[in-house]
């Protein structure tokens, strides 16, 4: 493992994105979110995604010159991301949502035509740090199937939740609807190792531990039909509410080999907690259930987001530790883009 300073890694990442014609301000925004995802432990959705994002930008699957536009109405915003990188669209959706909460108790931002947003937990975290409860989801092309299915039937549709907790780091819960995120399968294929039994199916609908067969086949849903049900919920909120004519285009219905998808849709739903429950009632209730949870679990009781907050604090002091395999991959990317990666 090699440690890198947050500032240096962010600056280099922004430069890489700028080399793909992303405007400097947008490049910095995306770089900050990717690096923060890395330092909070979202290893499959942090810096390892940069090469695939560059690939998508150069292929014009992500629009480096996107012009984001929004349509606002009471309780809602429709954000047309114009094919922007998901990090740029997601950050703008959080900003619009928080702005709307200044006038309303709840707002749903439907995001049209954006790229892969990376770790959805960072957007939920941003909202929670600003005092809002937040639910985030992104629709993906079909990736999930049950054993015996003829093919992938629905997206693995990741979802995240963030909530302020007085005196605590925000609660942040971030999952895909598959047993394991596709990023873990991509990582296993890159490193030449098997995946655990129960993660995926091969193209014939049979269980497999071969990551390459899994990538050609489909992922299994967490909790069986329960995972499929949550994926359907995200499909309704992130897919249907943000649907455009582009949503039906065949080229946006499959997953590229790199795993970074363009022209997808998402939603961010924010709630202003104090509009529903006055202080100190709200804070007292949060403390009550958190204390009871910890009393029952002892050293085993950890709130979602706690580990990420601890890792982020450690990285602020010590820098970000990157695996040697990822360092080599980023170094190769830097060579291709004529922006040497630092040792």
From TrEMBL:
InterPro entries: Mal/L-sulf/L-lact_DH-like_ah, Mal/L-sulf/L-lact_DH-like_NADP, Mal/L-sulfo/L-lacto_DH-like_sf, Malate/L-lactate_DH-like. Keywords: Oxidoreductase. The keyword Oxidoreductase applies. Pfam families: Ldh_2 (PF02615). The keyword Oxidoreductase applies. This is Ldh family oxidoreductase. Belongs to the LDH2/MDH2 oxidoreductase family.
């Amino acid at each position: 493992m090699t440690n890198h300073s947050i500032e240096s890694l962010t600056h280099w990442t922004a430069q890489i994105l700028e080399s793909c014609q992303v405007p400097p301000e947008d490049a910095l925004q995306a770089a900050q979110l990717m690096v923060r995802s890395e330092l909070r432990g979202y290893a499959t959705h942090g810096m390892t995604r940069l090469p695939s994002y560059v690939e998508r930008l150069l292929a014009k699957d992500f629009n480096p010159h996107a012009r984001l536009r929004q349509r606002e109405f009471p309780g809602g915003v429709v954000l047309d991301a114009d094919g922007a990188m998901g990090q740029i669209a997601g950050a703008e959706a959080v900003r619009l949502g928080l702005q709307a909460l200044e006038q309303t108790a709840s707002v749903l931002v439907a995001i049209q035509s954006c790229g892969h947003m990376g770790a959805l937990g960072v957007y939920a975290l941003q909202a929670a740090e600003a005092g809002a409860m937040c639910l985030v989801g992104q629709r993906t092309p079909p990736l999930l199937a049950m054993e015996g299915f003829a093919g992938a039937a629905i997206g693995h549709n990741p979802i995240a939740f963030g909530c302020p907790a007085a005196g605590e780091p925000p609660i942040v819960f971030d999952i895909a609807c598959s047993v394991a995120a596709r990023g873990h399968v991509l990582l296993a294929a890159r490193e030449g190792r098997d995946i655990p039994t129960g993660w995926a199916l091969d193209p014939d609908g049979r269980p497999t531990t071969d990551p390459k067969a899994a990538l050609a086949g489909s992922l299994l849903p967490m909790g069986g039909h329960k995972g499929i049900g949550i994926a359907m919920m995200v499909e309704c909120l992130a897919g249907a509410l943000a649907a455009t004519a582009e949503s039906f285009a065949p080229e946006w219905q499959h997953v590229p080999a790199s795993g970074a998808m363009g022209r997808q849709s998402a939603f961010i739903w924010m709630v202003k907690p104090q509009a529903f429950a006055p202080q100190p009632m709200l804070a007292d209730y949060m403390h009550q259930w958190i204390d009871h949870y910890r009393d029952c679990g002892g050293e085993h009781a950890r709130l979602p987001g706690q580990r990420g907050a601890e890792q982020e604090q450690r990285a602020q002091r010590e820098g970000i530790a990157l695996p040697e395999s990822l360092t080599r991959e980023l170094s190769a990317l830097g060579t291709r883009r004529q922006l040497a990666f630092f040792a």
